[in-house]
Design a protein that fits this description.
Blueprint: H1 3-32, E1 36-41, H2 49-64, E2 68-73, H3 76-85, E3 92-93, E4 96-97, H4 101-123, E5 130-134, E6 141-150, E7 153-166, H5 169-176, E8 180-184, E9 186-189, E10 194-196, H6 199-210, E11 214-219, E12 237-239, H7 240-246, H8 255-266, E13 272-276, H9 282-288, E14 295-298
Parallel strand pairs: 1-2, 1-11, 2-8, 5-8, 6-9, 11-13, 12-14
Antiparallel strand pairs: 3-4, 6-7, 9-10, 13-14
Helix pairs in contact: 3-4, 6-8
């Protein structure tokens, strides 16, 4: 075989593989066309510049494929970095950031003024799609003060909130205009305060309020393991009741993520996923491939039927 013929055969094989990938995506494109997908973009998942660019490309792809993506983001590492620069101590109690009024100013500035705008900028390189907003805007999230439980006692940890109500009207308007809302995880309080709220929880509450077809939580682990440190493969799929049983024994970092998945599924969202956001194009791999990626939580009624 000549070199030219070998190169042609290799090219044909590569093209066939690309075509196969597109055909594999087709039924999922049909299934999720015009459906809302809420994606929680974690502070740890967004630390790699190349992966951040790939994430933005995924969102634009979803938009052109006819899906309706909504992003809720955190920014824990970025907040800690900025607090350190200002000489403000970072303290955690029961896994929650103790948030003084001074720290809350930094949280708002970093989440809404820096991280949010960075995500919007990346998405809008490919078109005028993304619009950034805060959970305070249009009363999207309303929260009350959350207390941490330490040895069975409630401890005040400052301006940390628990979401009480969600008003998705502004988000619905942006979705109807084919925009991609990008929401920072802060909330207003009826008491006039502004609260730092968990982004996993915020994403779950918004997914329920929007009647989303899917919640995806991007983080810095491949998914949920039955034991930690891991001794086996990631759990591919589990039902809500099984997850509820496992939840109290999970590591502190996974409890809010898997708890958010449980909240979403119990609230009517058909699928909730924890996915490794460090994997390039993790969003597309989860939505448009037969095997998916990460861990999927489903209602008990469909837990045994596959994707």
């Amino acid at each position: 075989m000549t070199d030219n013929a070998a190169a042609a055969n290799a090219g044909n094989a590569g093209n066939a593989s690309k075509a196969g990938t597109l055909i594999e995506a087709l039924p999922w494109m049909i299934r999720f066309h015009d459906q809302t997908v809420v994606i929680k973009y974690g502070g740890n998942a967004m630390t790699e510049v190349a992966n951040s660019a790939a994430f933005a490309e995924d969102l634009v792809f979803l938009r052109y494929a006819g899906l309706r993506p909504v992003v809720v983001h955190g920014g824990g590492p970025q907040i800690t970095e900025h607090l350190d620069r200002l000489g403000l101590e970072t303290t955690f109690t029961a896994g929650l950031r103790v948030t003084s009024p001074e720290a809350m100013d930094v949280v708002r500035m970093v989440l809404t003024g820096k991280v949010n705008k960075d995500i919007v900028r990346l998405i809008n390189r490919d078109g005028p799609f993304a619009i950034g907003m805060s959970g305070e805007d249009a009363n999207l999230f309303t929260a009350t003060r959350k207390l941490a439980m330490v040895d069975g006692e409630a401890v005040d940890i400052g301006l940390v909130g628990e979401i009480e109500t969600t008003d998705p009207g502004a988000i619905r308007a942006l979705i109807a205009d084919r925009r991609i809302p990008v929401v920072s995880s802060v909330a207003r309080g009826e008491d006039g305060e502004v609260y730092n709220v968990n982004a996993d929880t915020a994403a779950a509450e918004l997914a329920v309020a929007l009647g989303a077809a899917k919640l995806m939580i991007l983080t810095d682990v491949p998914g949920l393991y039955r034991t930690w440190p891991p001794t086996g493969d990631v759990i591919s799929q589990l039902g809500a009741t099984e997850l509820e049983t496992m939840l109290p024994n999970l590591g502190s970092g996974m409890i809010p993520k898997m708890g958010a998945c449980l909240t979403a599924v119990r609230g009517g969202v058909p699928q909730a996923h924890v996915v490794d956001g460090r994997q390039p194009h993790a969003v597309l791999l989860e939505i448009f491939t037969d095997s998916g990626t990460g861990t999927m939580v489903v209602p008990d009624s469909v837990a045994k039927t596959g994707r």
